[in-house]
Amino acid sequence: MITKQVFLERKGVRSRQIQKLEEELKDLRKVVVDEGNYPTVEQIYERVGQFRELWSVAVTSEEKNRALKKLVERIVYNREGNRVELTVCYR
Fold first, then answer.
1. How many helices (H) and strands (E) does the chain have?
2. Same domain, 28 and 54
3. Has UniProt tagged this entry with the keyword Coiled coil (predicted)?
4. Quick one: DSSP state of residue 59?
5. Are 6 and 27 within one domain?
6. What is the four-CA torsion angle of 88, 62, 52, 45, rounded to 10 degrees?
């Protein structure tokens, strides 16, 4: 048998753990790519070729960003204190 106070403390701890896990799951769902959307090898070579062409003539930051968008869909970052974790989602 446990007291009501112990039960409420345990319930609070579990609720915080569940909330943290739900947030982690939400972040993971952002990163996971549907298997049906994986590009073929030919598509990858085509994108890399487009990137190289655009990058070789890029002068401004905007032009370089356009070139990178041929390869990168988005970058997800998680900052905890002084530590930053980056996840690159490729096209």
1. 3, 2
2. no
3. yes
4. -
5. yes
6. 50
| Of residues 56, 82, 51, 83, the one with CA closest to residue 69 | 51
Residue 46: which domain range? Answer: 36-91
* CB 78, CB 27: distance < 8 Å: yes
Six-digit token string for 2: 């446990």
Total number of domains in the chain: 2
Q: pLDDT tens for the chain, 91 residues: list them.
A: 889 999 999 999 999 999 999 998 987 777 775 555 677 888 888 888 988 998 899 889 998 988 888 888 888 888 888 899 888 888 7
pTM of the model: 0.47
Secondary structure element (H or E) that encloses residue 17, with its range: helix 4-31
Q: Which two three-digit tokens encode residue 35?
A: 């298997």
